Amino acid sequence: SDSLEVIAFCDQARTIYDSGPAPPDMAELRRQLADVRPAGATDIMKALAQATRTPATTQRPGLVILVSDLEPTAYDQARSGDLFDPARAAEMFAGKHLGLAMVATAPPGASGGEIQKLEDLARRLNAPLVRRDRLTGLAEVFAQFMPRGRGETVRSGQFAMNLPGQPFGVAGPVPVI
Predict the structure, then answer these.
(1) What does pTM read for this prediction?
(2) Per-residue DSSP letter, 23
(3) Which residues contact 45 (CB under 8 A, 6 or more apart)?
(4) Biggest distance spanned by C-alpha atoms of the chain
(5) Measured on CA atoms in the order 130, 122, 52, 74, is the torsion positive or negative?
(6) Sign of the CA dihedral 133, 136, 142, 145?
(7) How buried is 120 (Cβ within 10 angstroms: 0-12 exposed, 13-18 middle, 19+ buried)?
(8) What's the gap between Cα 18 and its chain centre?
(9) Angle formed at CA 153 by CA 122 and CA 124, multiple of 5 degrees
(10) pLDDT, tens digit, 9 for 90 and up, residues 88-141
(11) Per residue in 84-99, is it b (16+ CB within 10 Å) or e — as a string?
């Protein structure tokens, strides 16, 4: 029942996929992602502004997952590193029922200004920040973020179930497996 919007960003931010109220179409998302190529600046602020433009609700909180390679470009350097302001970025989330989780790809040992700014934003919003040296294994990282945005997505142990009807057409008590 979740909706999914994917925003690609460089010196501009643009929605490349939006499921709207329908369940996400992963085949279509895969097709749209195939056309995304690294280019231009890394203007995180524009991506966050677009991702936070529509507030969520307390009944249905949202989760923004930011993935950036943090690669500085000539455009970034010409702008004196003023592209990313953690305090202003944190304000974009205020009162919108949106959580944040981040993945930063940077070579091992990298500790430049942009990673420090992401660490500052993570502290301000109590957001997880995962550092990777490359964009592999992200499905596992995203799965770890889900409980922060949606609570427990998979449950184990004993808990009460509220079913709208009998599953699988079974009459009587629900069999426990």
Answers:
(1) 0.72
(2) P
(3) 83, 84, 85, 88, 89
(4) 70
(5) negative
(6) negative
(7) middle
(8) 14
(9) 10
(10) 999 999 999 999 988 888 766 666 667 788 889 999 999 998 888 776 666 666
(11) bebeebbebbeebebb
Residues in the chain: 177
Q: Around Cβ 65, how many Cβ atoms within 10 Å? A: 20
Determine the Cα–Cα distance for residues 105 and 29; give it in Å rounded to an integer: 22
- The residue with tokens 């142990």 is 157
pLDDT digits (tens, 9 = 90+) for 56-72: 888 888 889 888 876 65
User: Distance between CA atoms of 47 and 9, rounded to whole angstroms?
Assistant: 6
12 vs 41: CA distance, rounded Å: 8
Distance CA 145, CA 68 (A): 16
β-bridge pairing 98-105 and 5-9 = unpaired
Locate 51 and state its tokens. Answer: 């991702």
Tokens of 137: 């294994």
Q: Which two tokens stand for residue 44?
A: 């995180």
DSSP 167: G
